[in-house]
Amino acid sequence: MTAPPHRRRPVLPFRRRPVLLAAGALLTAGAVTACVLVAGGAGAGRDARPVAAADGLRHTTVEIGTSGCGRGWTRPAAGRQVFDLRNTSATAAEAYLVDARTGAVHGEVEGLGPGTTRPLQVTLGDGSYAFTCLPDDADAVTGPTVRITGGGKVRSGPAAVPVTQQELIPPTLAYQKWIGARTVELARRTDVLRAAVDRGDLAAARAAWLPAHLVYERMGAAYGTFGDADAEIDGTTAGLSGGVRDPGFAGFHRVEYGLWHGESASSLRGPADRLAGAVHALRDSWPGRRMDPADVGLRAHEILENTVQFELTGRTDYGSGTNLATARANLDGTRALLGYLRPLLRTRATGLTGIETWMSRARHTLDAFDHDGRWTPLSRLTRAQREKVDADLGELVERLADVAALTDVRRTA
How far is residue 306 from each of residues 223, 239, 346, 394, measured CA to CA in Å? Predict the structure, then answer.
């Protein structure tokens, strides 16, 4: 499936595994390249001994496969350490290091090819642990339980208790209902915008454009479910050979360009009608659409990830200078989604309070640029102001990656 030529989050053809927990404990194959492999280290087997490596950490080679899952971890010890996971099966595999009592995942590697070795760095305290091996096209296998004692004050790094698809269904349904109400509001505000263009009152149209656009920007976690409607409602010129004159350029940004670049009302009636038609079609079709529960937690991170990438760089400004208003709306949308996920996060996310603190901080920072509905354009920020906006939103994006990791549905069988 080819992603449409606009700025929104692509509907990925595969599940992108989140890679971050608060202290970097949950790592995937793509996130551990900084670890140092042991050159000529002990092979996976019952007599394998942990060895020191150039990184100064304890390394243990562990077998990942159906017949010897977890083999090689015979001398457990507390502390920060690296497991060099070697896939001894004939197919690619995933591997989790789990708390044997609770099932919480302390670390993971995915896409481990046959005969290859990849490092997994974790910090472990006293407790019981086991490796779960999940070869492609085969049942999961859990290796022997290994107990660590005598760790003293060493505490294990963060771990994620896996969520199930069933647990994510209630918050997803509640969020879908919330989106349904937003589509009604969006249609109402877009009608006001279209009516102003129709009667030739471009000053009123400019005043109506931002309130309508911000409603859409609060709906970020649902964009993947909108399908082609997203390009029709909020597309940009990205990928369009004709730029702002391309017939494929449509939606809020097409109307924005005309309103702030001197186009006549008659030239904007077509784009405004097309926008309103797409919005009404979305509103009418939404009750029959279904969001994927497995994507909801990831979207909680992606909303502001896209904000940093597109809004804070000004790539989506077509004349109104309202990127900071859009960022504020994206923040509202993130907060709404987190509210529905809160029951699941409350028992899993030790850093939830920190996320809420940074949400409030980012909101306060952005609100300083709202002057009775007239937002400061990015180009008018001082260097100190720009650095603060970037820092606050960037920190929040990093913390929200924890939510994506904690709500990721992991394979268990």
Answer: 12, 17, 25, 11
CA dihedral 8, 9, 11, 12 (to 10 degrees): 140
Tell whether the model's pLDDT for residue 8 goes beyond 70. Answer: no
Euclidean distance between CA atoms 248 and 237, whole angstroms: 8
Predicted confidence (pLDDT) at residue 231 exceeds the cutoff of 70: yes
Residue 21: is it exposed, middle or buried by C-beta count within 10 angstroms (0-12/13-18/19+)?
A: buried
Q: How confident is the model at residue 171 (pLDDT cuts 50, 70, 90)?
A: very high
Angle among Cα 78, 79, 84 to the nearest 5 degrees reads 95
Q: What gap in Å lies between CA 297 and CA 214, rounded to an integer?
A: 22
The number of beta carbons lying within 10 Å of the beta carbon of residue 377 is: 16
Q: Provide the greatest CA pair distance for the chain.
A: 83
Taking 60 as the threshold, does the pLDDT of residue 307 lie above it? yes
Those residues whose C-beta lies under 8 Å from the C-beta of residue 316, and which sit 6 or more positions away, are 7, 236, 253, 310, 323, 326
Q: How many CA atoms lie within 13 A of 145 on its CB side?
A: 9
Per DSSP, the three-state class of 143 is coil
Structure tokens at 181: 């109400």
Nearest Cα neighbor of 64 from 41, 42, 85 is 85
Q: Which one has a higher pLDDT value, 32 or 196?
A: 196
Distance, CA of 22 to CA of 157 (rounded, Å):
9
Query: 41 is written with which tokens?
Result: 């280290």
C-alpha angle 123/162/11, rounded to 5°? 110
In the prediction, which pLDDT does 411 show?
79
CA dist list (Å): 338 to 162, 174, 297, 346: 17, 12, 8, 11
Which helix or strand (DSSP H or E) is residue 282 part of? helix 265-285
If pLDDT is split at 50, 70 and 90, which confidence band does 52 have? low
